[in-house]
Amino acid sequence: MAESVNSQVIPMDRLHRFWTYITAHPSDIGWAAFFALFFALILDLLDRQGRIRTGIRHLKNKLAERSTARLRKRILQLEGERNRYAEYISSNKPLYLDTFRSVIGMLMGVVVGGGFAVLMDLLRIRFLGVLAVYFYVLAVIFGIQGFKISSLDSNAKITATIMKLNEEISDLKNKLEATAK
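The structure corresponding to this sequence follows.
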């Protein structure tokens, strides 16, 4: 017996086998969904204009609006970030050094995590496995930071980032002036 779906013929036994597999292996489906979401999250974090980064930046700005002291602190933070990006325009050396620092941090995280994993096997202490995973996650964070920094590979991208920061700074300064009145 076959059923037509969107002008395609799908045998019912295939659908039945597919549904049987899903219901028989819920943990496999759960792990697949977890890893799909995990890697989607990492890919979104790698994107400079990603939704997560934009949301975090927006949330930080909204939280800073609650008091003038926080607003001033956030403005100083954004100005420092803007000045760091401006250094990238004047010379490639800070960009290369920051990227190199991320690579070294990532390698150190992998090495220390591997060391803890080996010690866990030798000493039979489970907690060392948790420390190993912690350092592996730290290595991933350094890798994401390295991608973030190295994505600024042209003056046009750096200038666009600086312009975006200038807009945020001017918006926050306007809000600071409005609250001061």
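The longest strand covers residues 2-5.
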